[in-house]
Write a structure and sequence with these properties.
By secondary structure, the chain is an all-alpha fold. Among the domains are: 1-84, Actin-binding Protein, T-fimbrin, domain 1, CATH 1.10.418.70; 382-544, no CATH class; 570-633. 84% of the residues lie in helices and 2% in strands. The protein is built from 15 helices and 2 strands. Strand 1 (621-625) and strand 2 form a beta hairpin.
Length: 633
């Protein structure tokens, strides 16, 4: 697949892999990827091995890169044919002819680069010129349409009385509409402002209610004490805790800045720093031990106070940290609560009593749900048992019917045994049904009487059902006949509907085409009529000018001069276009000659290459792969 994709980018690399050696295939693929400038990553050896073995984690990224940049890579592969230099060994370049030929080859590559740039720029310019011409033509058409509309409207306005009054009324209507639009926008802004103010009022009211509820049963002195405690806590956090944290952060930033501005540390520098840190730690611990040993307990009377101060400071820090965490958690909960109520400040928050009532109602509903679910499960279970019982009874009825038909009067004991056997099986299978049979205490005459009664009931049911079965059979036959007729009619209807649908679609398409043609013809008629009117008007004005000029030779000819000027401009434009056409023709001839020269040069190089190979073959065997040569003597 990779070879086919590369062949699609460069047709010259299309090779049948089956007839190619694996090494040559690998070299060809790697060379093509190198030409296309594919990045193999930090492990080129593993990349080459993955190409040789066809690993998916190597091939799939290559395919994804090739297919994503297909157009750019096609252009790169095309340019590589002419810009990638042939690798010539230094020993061969020592030859004067080869060196001269290689210099000419490099010069031709440089000329090709210049020619390719000029060709690309000319293509872009031609595209831009074509776009400008199409835009100009479209603008001219739009201008003609607008001029026609203006002319038509002006003709309509000429026949209207009080034209200025109507125009003034239309102008006032437009101004009123603009004023109405501005008022609507202003009203919308006022409504939004009022809504925001209502939300703020509701929020402040809620806060006021919360403060009032919290202040119930609290004296002013308690409120002042609480505020003083909060003030002390916030002052401690700001002055000591946050100040210390800010100082630590500044030190960390300073250290990181020094590291970032410094040179990149090597492993030797890191080891030296680690060693220095260990030495300083040992020195600090040794100095601390010396200080503790030099102090006498009797002289250090402030040690207990210092220790107590340290304990109090540590507790204050822990309490401040706990306070900060609780405050952060409270802010987070407030944000979550606001998100849950959808940002509506006016929404009511459930209090403790309402929440308890809701929990109690939920428990009652949960109990009722569990009761109903248990009842439903019992009914489902009972329904399954009854359905199973009905199936077993039906099977036993069918079996007993067969046994009754096959039994004869001389073998009644065997018949009774079979009946009892099936009854016992039914009893053992249907354990959930409260039905039990004890055949030991029942006399045979009574059993025979019961079986006779069952047979009579079965015969009576068959007699009663027979007419219904006959009616059902007749109805089924009638249904089959009607179904056949329905299928035939349906098939006929489908065929007719398909034919009519195709005919209607064709007719609709023809009607649409004819309508489009009619509209186009109408527009052409209107356009030609307008042009005819314009030309007639111009002709009439020119004739009037000629008649006037014959009477008064001093009066200038405005329309005649204008038409003459336009004719002269068109003739100049025509001559300029002819010159441009002639210039393009000359450039095309030069390009054709240059192409022929390139072709002749290519043929000459191929001829020299063949001569060189023939000369080398006389001296030894040459093996050539893409970009390399090997001579075996």
């Amino acid at each position: 697949i990779l070879s086919d994709v590369l062949a699609d980018l460069d047709c010259s690399s299309r090779v049948d892999i089956k007839s190619e050696e694996p090494e040559e295939t690998t070299i060809r693929l790697l060379t093509m990827l190198r030409i296309l400038k594919y990045d193999p990553g930090s492990d080129p050896v593993g990349f080459r091995q993955g190409i040789v073995q066809g690993e998916k984690y190597i091939i799939h990224p290559i395919l994804e890169w090739l297919l994503r940049n297909k157009e750019d890579l096609k252009k790169r592969a095309y340019l590589a044919k002419f810009l990638v230099k042939v690798e010539v060994p230094i020993e061969i370049l020592a030859d004067g002819d080869v060196s001269t030929l290689f210099e000419q080859y490099e010069q031709l590559i440089a000329k090709f680069k210049i020619a390719h740039k000029e060709s690309t720029s000319m293509k872009e310019q031609s595209i831009s010129v074509a776009e400008l011409r199409s835009d100009i033509e479209a603008m001219e058409k739009e201008k003609e349409i607008v001029m026609k509309k203006i002319d038509r409207l002006s003709r309509k306005l000429d026949n209207i009385e009080n034209k200025e009054a109507f125009l003034e009324a239309a102008r006032e209507l437009r101004l009123e509409k603009e004023r109405q639009k501005e008022l609507l926008q202003q009203r919308q802004g006022e409504m939004e402002l009022m809504q925001r103010l209502q939300q703020n009022t509701a929020s402040l009211t809620q806060q006021l209610n919360d403060v009032r509820q919290a202040s119930q049963g609290v004296t002013p002195q308690e409120l002042l004490n609480k505020l003083e405690e909060e003030l002390k806590m916030n002052t401690y956090i700001v002055n000591e805790k946050l100040g210390l944290e800010l100082e630590n952060k500044k030190k960390e930033v300073e250290i990181l800045t020094r590291i970032a501005n410094g040179s990149f540390p090597t492993q030797e520098n890191i080891d030296a720093l680690k060693k220095k840190v260990i030495e300083l730690s040992e020195e600090v611990s040794e100095l601390a031990q010396r200080g503790f040993a030099s102090k006498e307990p009797a002289d250090d009377k402030s040690a207990p106070y210092r220790q107590q101060a340290l304990i109090i400071a540590r507790k204050k820090g822990e309490i401040a940290e706990t306070f900060t965490q609780i405050k952060t958690a409270l802010d987070t909960l407030k944000l979550k609560l606001k998100a849950k109520i959808g940002g509506d400040e006016t929404a009511n928050i459930v209090d403790e009593n309402e929440y308890k009532e809701y929990i109690a109602n939920l428990k009652v509903k949960n109990t009722l749900y569990k009761t109903k679910k248990a009842q439903l499960a019992a009914l489902v279970s009972e329904s399954g048992v009854l359905a199973r019982t009905i199936d077993i009874l039906k099977q036993m009825q069918e079996t007993l019917t067969v046994v009754i038909k096959q039994s004869n009067k001389n073998n009644k004991i065997a018949f009774y045994k079979i009946v009892f056997k099936y009854l016992e099986e039914f009893t053992s299978i249907n354990e959930k049904v409260d039905y039990e049979i004890n055949l030991e205490g029942i006399p045979k005459e009574e059993l025979q009487q019961q079986i006779t009664n069952l047979n009579n009931k079965i015969a009576a049911e068959k007699t009663r059902i027979a007419p219904k079965l006959e009616e059902l059979r007749k109805a089924k036959e009638t249904h089959d006949e009607l179904l056949e007729v329905y299928k035939e009619k349906k098939k006929l209807y489908d065929s007719k509907a398909a034919t009519l649908g195709a005919t209607v679609t064709t007719l609709e398409q023809e009607v649409k085409e004819l309508t489009k043609e009619e509209q186009y013809d109408q527009s052409q008629i209107a356009l030609l009529k307008a042009r005819t009117d314009i030309l007639s008007t111009l002709l009439r004005k020119v004739e009037e000018e000629d008649s006037v000029s014959m009477e008064n030779s001093d009066k200038p000819k405005f329309y005649s001069d204008k038409l003459s000027t336009k004719i002269n401009e068109e003739e100049k434009l025509n001559s300029a276009l002819k010159k441009e056409q002639q210039l393009i023709k000359e450039i095309q001839e030069k390009r054709s000659k240059q192409r022929d020269l390139w072709y002749n040069l290519e043929m000459l190089l191929e001829c020299k290459q063949r001569c060189f190979e023939d000369q080398r073959k006389k001296d030894g065997i040459i093996k050539r792969t893409k970009g390399t040569e090997t001579l075996v003597l």
